[in-house]
Each structure stands twice: as C-alpha cells, then as structure tokens.
Amino acid sequence: MKRTDQTSPSTSPPPSGADPRRARRRSGRLLLKLVALALIAGGLLYKLRFAAIGVTTHTVGRASVEAEVMGTGTLEARLKTTISPKIQGRLREVLVDQNDTVTTGQLLARLDDAELKEQVAVAEAALNAANATVERVRAEEARAQAVLKLAQLDFARAEDLRRADVAAQADFDKAVESIRVAEAELQRALAAITEADQQRVTASKNLAYHQARLADTELRSPWEALVVRRDRDPGEVVVPGSSILRLISTNELWLSAWVDETAMGRVTTGQTAQVVFRSDPETRHAGTVARLGREADRETREFLVDVRVDELPLRWAVGQRGEVYIHTAREESVVAVPRGFLVWRDGRAGAFVEVRGRAQWRALETGLQGRRMLEIQQGLEAGEVVLRPVPGSRMPLRDGQRVKPAA
C-alpha cells in the first residue's frame, strides 16, 4: 500500500504587533488620555470664561482730591560751614565733638602757638624800640628848635650892631652862619622824626600781623550751631582748607528735592507739602516750599525744590534721603476712585464696573489726579462699584467676566 505524507496547515501565532486585543487596549488608553485632556481643557476654559474670579471692589463716592508733585532728595541745612585753619600748624586740642551744640564765638579748637607767641614778643620789642627812637628824635627836635631860636637872637643883635657900625663884619657873618647851622640841625631832626615814625608804623603793623597769626591758632564758632562731624584729632598737622569740624544751623532745615521739570509750572513758594523720610516711612511731616531752583540738571531734566520741614523726626541726620509730596491743587467733593482701579485700553482711561455680577469696562474722562485718588468727570456716578483683580491674581479682567468680591 502506498503511503502518502500529509502536511498540516501552519498554526504558529501572529506577530505581537498584530494582536488585535493588545491594539484595542492601547487604543482604549489613548482614548482615555484624550478624554482626560479634553476634560482638563474644558475645565480651564470654563474657569477662564465662565467661572467667577475674585475681585477687589470699591464703591464710587465723592471725596476730596489733592494733586501732588513728588520729588526725592536729602535733608540739608540752610546755613552750614566747615571749620578749617587759616594757617598751617599742628592741632593741639579739639574742644568739641559730634552732636555738641556751640554758641557764637565759642572756642572750638586750638593750634600749637608756641612759635607764634615768640614772634609776637619779638614784634612787641621792635615796636617798643621804635617808640623809644621816636621819643629820642623828638627830643633832638626840641634841642634843635632851641638852638635855632638862640641863633636867631644872636643874628638879630649882630644885625643891629652892624647897622650902628659897632660890630665888625666878621661877627655878623658868624651870626649868619650860626643861624644856618641851626636851621640845618632842625631839618635833620624833623627828617629823623619822619623816619622814626615810619619805623614805628612798620613795627606796629608787624606786631599786628603776628598777633593776627597768633589769633588764627584759635578756631571759634561763627554762630550758634550743631557739630555734625569731626574730621581731625589733636596731634595732626592741618593746612588751610582742611576740615576740622563741620557745623550746621538748626534754625532752618529743609529737604532739597529733585523734581521733574514738567512740574515747574505748578510749583510755587508757600505751597504746603508732606515729607516722608525713608528711616520712618509710616510718618508724614508737614512742610512748606521755601525756595525754587533756577537751574535744571541737563542729564536728569530735574530742578531743585527746597521744602522746609516744620518738625523733624526724633532721630535725623543731615544728608538722609526722603520723598516730598507738594500739594499743587485741590478739588472738594468730586466723584473719585482710587488710582489703582484705572485701566488703560487703546490709549483711553477706563475702569471695570460691576454690572449684575459681571465686569464691564467703561471709558472715563479724568480730571485732577492725586497720589491716591483720581477725579472722574464723566463715566461714573456715585454708588457704582468698580473692580480690579485681587492682589497676586494672574487672571486679568475681561468684559463679561463673572466676578465675586474677595473676602
């Protein structure tokens, strides 16, 4: 019997990538991810578009609006001076220190004066010698006057005798010679007096010069002042112009503030102001505009305004920084909102107003602008509620956005 080999059909599994069940599972997972992403996107869209966001509200009312010009500067004294020597020398003692109050003419410091005292003594001796010389030559003048008078009497007698042909010509000539000699002696005495007087004047001026130099070793206060700085100690050699002490008058202190030149037309002397020192930012000090600068800085385009501070803080220092707010205009009982609620769109000022639980942007016409409040001339009425996002929110307000007031 003839045998025939029969081959059964192939039963090997298909490749894994072709497994329908695995493909279905992978498709299901992908679908779930897509659905999850769609739900997240829908939630975000709902939150952005339809969910109410927290806002800060303000009810519009009437208030006073005060326009201000702001500047930054430093506290300065109107009167200030540097105590420095007129001559070079070694500083012997400094009699005051920082924060000391001094009076007019009070001795503040002294230089070593031993050498100058010797020079004064020498100059005094020279003056005394000149005075003695003047006395001596004046005595010689008196003697010359007496000799001349005697010669004149002898000449008169000789002349009378010659006319009477009693005296000889030789006696007359001798009398003439005597009077000429006496006159010459008098002229010499007068010249000696002039020379002695000049020497005395020179000696007197020399003494005054050395006395002035001796006086320059004592440094005194020019007026009542406060010592704000001490720059030298005893033993140091100082030269003219070098600072030993710095004084200020506490009668008038002001904040010298730099203000933008665009405000120049609105600032005048006598306007009230408020000063805030950075050392105490929570306290405001009343002030008055005392002086305006007449030269603007060519780089920053600012000019100086000196604001007198009525009452200084308990602790202050010349040169400390501060801000000044100058009151330039004021409107009473006008419709006003805080500046923070203002929103600009396409170059126009506006604000979001609450209308039936939603935000609605409205264009406004503004008037006087204060540091905190802003006058609204058109666009808002008293009693309406303006909105802005709560601090820290990253979601801006949009027209039609549902809102809820923050707690």
What would the average pLDDT be, to the nearest integer? 86
Order of helices and strands: HEEEEEEHHEEEEEEEEEEEEEEEE
For the record, the count of structural domains works out to 4
Q: Globular, elongated, flat, extended or rod-shaped: what is the shape?
A: rod-shaped
Low-pLDDT segments, ≥5 res: 1-12
Rg from Cα: 51 Å
Question: Which architecture of the largest domain per CATH?
Answer: Up-down Bundle
Helix tally? 3
**Number of distinct beta strands:** 22
CATH class group of the largest domain: Mainly Alpha
Strand content: 35-45%
CATH topology annotation of the largest domain: Four Helix Bundle (Hemerythrin (Met), subunit A)
Beginning-to-end CA distance, first to last residue: 103 Å
Computed structural class: alpha+beta
Helix content: 25-40%
Sheet with most strands: 6 strands, mixed
Task: Give your account of this protein's structure.
It is a single chain. The chain is an alpha+beta fold. It folds into four domains: 53-65 and 332-405, conserved putative lor/sdh protein from methanococcus maripaludis s2 fold; 69-76 and 252-330, Elongation Factor Tu (Ef-tu), domain 3 (Beta Barrel); 87-111 and 218-247, OB fold (Dihydrolipoamide Acetyltransferase, E2P), CATH 2.40.50; 114-215, Four Helix Bundle (Hemerythrin (Met), subunit A) (Up-down Bundle), CATH 1.20.120. It has three helices and 22 strands. The longest helix has 50 residues, at 114-163. The protein is rod-shaped. Residues 1-12 have low confidence and may be disordered.
